[in-house]
Amino acid sequence: MHIRFSSLLALVTALAGSMALITQPSAAQNNDTQSSQAAAKPEDTEIWEPVPVVVTPGKNNTAPPSDAIVLFDGKNLDEWVSVQDKSPAKWLVADGVVTVNKAVGNIETKRKFRDYQLHIEWKVPANITGSGQARGNSGVFLASTGPDDGGYELQVLDPYNNKTYVNGMAGSIYKQAIPLVNPGRKPGEWQTYDVVWTAPVFEADGSLKSPAYVTVFFNGVLVQNHFQLKGETLYIGQPFYRKFDAAPIKLQAHGDPSQPISFRNIWVRELR
Questions:
Q1: What is the rounded CA–CA span in Å between residue 122 and residue 42?
Q2: 191 - beta bridge partners?
Q3: Whose CA is closest to 71, among 213, 272, 267, 237?
Q4: Which candidate, 4, 22, 220, 244, has a CA 20 to 30 Å from the CA of 172?
Q5: Contacts (Cβ under 8 Å, ≥6 apart) of 247
Q6: Quick one: 160 and 78 in the same domain?
Q7: Strand 221-228 to strand 138-144: parallel, antiparallel, or no bridges (unpaired)?
Q8: CB contact at 8 A, 259 and 138
Q9: Predicted TM-score (pTM) of this structure
Q10: Across all residues in the chain, what is the average pLDDT?
């Protein structure tokens, strides 16, 4: 069918006018809104209670605030146990730091947590050897759900001129989330993770109600922005969720032959 351009233009113009009439508020609606705003008072949108609890910040951005649970203050491992048999943790404490003891395996907190803010500092030794995943490998498991490496891992690895698969580099959620950038320092220098962890929630039958989320700052730089996890982090295979409630935080004694890394200034704030 042939339609003259002038007729088509007239039709389009008419339709546009009709849509404008539909989407624009009427004069009466505008008057009602303006009257409501004119009658509003500042106190209508003020919330006074409950008043947030006062928390005294640390003396610097690495020191624990007043409501933190200190997991390692440089003196002992009283807050930690061996993952394998729940005996006292036997990593090496000296000069205010704790160094991985690969011979005795992973350690985890005695306490269990759900949602929290975590601060932890780690250092790859200056004389580190090896490459890729065999160079300063460890991990911070934000929820330990079983022996060995069961749970949700934030990767620790030498980040400086050390090529590896990018979803396994420092700052990654292992095999799931590539860090947004690499702000890692050289071996021999202290690195910092500041983490906000939201644990997954499960129905009574074990099905997933809401997934886990994590935000990570690496040396003060955002590398994971409220990432939604697909399940537990696995070396082989696809991630999946299995029901748990609160869980310990676990530190990994990785089996690679490189020199062991160290940790210091570990504290957590429970988010309720």
A1: 49
A2: 122
A3: 267
A4: 244
A5: 112, 113, 114, 143, 144, 145, 151, 199
A6: yes
A7: unpaired
A8: no
A9: 0.86
A10: 91
Residue 115 sits at the vertex; the CA angle it makes with 60 and 168, to the nearest 5 degrees, is 80
Task: Give the number of domains in the chain.
Answer: 2
**Phi first, then psi: what are they for 93, rounded to 5°?**
-105, 125
Residue 266: closest CA among 253, 251, 254: 251
CB under 8 A, 24+ apart: contacts of 221-224: 221/181, 221/183, 222/180, 223/171, 223/179, 223/180, 223/181, 223/183, 224/171, 224/173, 224/177, 224/179, 224/180
Three-class SS state of 139: strand
Closest CA to 88 of 73, 101, 69, 74: 101
Print the domain residue range for 30: 5-45
Rounded to whole angstroms, the Cα distance separating 261 from 251 reads 11
Of the candidates 237, 228, 235, the residue with the CA atom closest to the CA atom of residue 255: 235
What is the distance between the alpha carbons of residues 135 and 205, in angstroms, rounded to a whole number?
42
pLDDT tens figures, 44-53: 999 999 989 9
| Amino acid identity, position 42 | P
State which H helix or E strand residue 95 sits in: none
Same structural domain for residues 40 and 78?
A: no
40 and 94 belong to one structural domain: no
State the residue for tokens 């395996």. Answer: 105
Terminal alpha carbon distance of the chain: 68
Per-residue tokens: 95: 């000069």
> What does the pLDDT look like over 77-100, one tens digit per residue?
999 999 999 999 999 999 999 999
Which amino acid, 66?
S
Based on the domain organization, do 113 and 159 belong to the same domain? yes
Report if residue 53 sits inside a domain.
Answer: no
Strands 208-210 and 201-202: antiparallel
